[in-house]
Specification:
Elements (H helix, E strand, L loop, with lengths): L1 H22 L53 H17 L3 H31 L13 H23 L3 E5 L5 H17 L3 E5 L13 E4 L3 H4 L7 E6 L3 E7 L4 H14 L5 H7 L9 H13 L4 H11 L2
Parallel strand pairs: 1-2, 2-3
Antiparallel strand pairs: 1-4, 4-5
Helix pairs in contact: 2-3, 4-7, 4-8, 9-10
């Protein structure tokens, strides 16, 4: 029985020895450590390469070949803009008879072209009343004097018409030297044009140089509301609430009346034919809206500028 166990033990030991020899001596391969059993290598992963579908060939962008710029017509305006400076530079850099002569004859041609244009321009101004500036304001000395007298008379009438719808506030101060000089000018204007005037002082007291029975009142905030910084000051007052400061500082009578007329026109106190006569220099002038309408017509028809402009100008006389 013992022999059987012994035989089994020997067989077991012999099998272990064979396995040890196959695995190698663990004591000789100490670098493998005490856990010398062999580990099977892990299987390598196979990389899958995705196939990229072939891309269609992209066509190169078409190249547009521009032709050479067309040369301007000889002796035209475009030609002179490019060639005339070159002729001048050649004549200055190399003043031979040939170069200087070429430059001078080019100059002669250019001046003759300008003369031809000027004659046609002047002829149309004389023959077309809508292009004749003397229709709006005469140029001759004889007519000029008569025109100016008539224009001043129409402005005077318009100013008198304003006086029936508006009055004047005059801000004065007894301590102001120029106020005493402005006062008689305002009084004369008010008398000649028919304006009602109210004089306003800081304390409501009558200045020592104020004459007659002029209406004097205290400044109860009117000056602050109108931002009066300098006296004398004059404001045109059109009831109920249209107030325009026309001057802060001294003015002559003609300038004072001119500003009264402009302020009255801005306030809508001058209308109709009276306004046209008071501002004759505006006759025939195209308004901003007129010009826009002509532009819109021109976009539709390149030849529309002449008939449309004529129509608009006629309506402004």
């Amino acid at each position: 029985m013992k022999k059987i166990f012994l035989s089994v033990a020997i067989a077991t030991i012999a099998a272990s020895a064979v396995q040890a020899q196959q695995a190698g001596d663990p004591f000789k391969n100490t670098e493998e450590g005490w856990f010398w059993y062999q580990v099977d290598p892990e299987p390598k992963e196979t990389l899958k390469v995705e196939e990229v579908p072939p891309q269609p060939n992209k066509q190169a962008p078409a190249v547009i070949q521009l032709g050479k710029p067309k040369k301007p017509e000889a002796l035209s305006v475009d030609w002179f803009q490019t060639e005339y400076p070159r002729l001048l530079n050649n004549a200055v850099d190399n003043p031979t008879d040939e170069n200087v002569q070429a430059y001078r004859y080019a100059t002669r041609v250019m001046l003759d072209k300008a003369s031809n244009f000027t004659r046609t321009f002047q002829r149309q101004s004389l023959l077309d009343p809508l292009l004749d500036e003397s229709v709006r304001s005469p140029f001759s000395s004889a007519m000029r004097g008569s025109y100016q007298r008539w224009s001043l008379e129409q402005k005077r009438k318009a100013t008198e018409a304003i006086s029936k719808k508006a009055g004047l506030w005059v801000f004065l101060d007894d301590k102001c030297h120029f106020c005493s000089l402005q006062y008689p000018i305002v009084e004369r204007t008010a008398k000649e044009r028919g304006f009602e005037v109210i004089y306003i002082t800081p304390d409501g007291e009558r200045p020592s140089w104020l004459m007659g029975k002029s209406d004097v009142r205290k400044d109860d905030g009117q000056g602050r509301h109108l931002k009066i910084q300098v006296r004398p000051a004059v404001a045109l007052v059109a009831p109920p609430d249209n107030i325009t400061v026309i001057t802060q500082g001294m003015l002559s009578q003609d300038l004072l009346e001119e500003r009264i007329l402009i302020a009255g026109d801005a306030a809508g106190l001058v209308t109709g034919q009276a306004r046209k006569d008071a501002f004759p220099e505006e006759r025939g002038i195209l308004t901003t809206e007129d010009i826009k309408e002509i532009g819109r017509a021109l976009e539709k028809d390149p030849k529309a500028i002449v008939p449309r402009a004529q129509d608009k100008i006629q309506k402004r006389y």
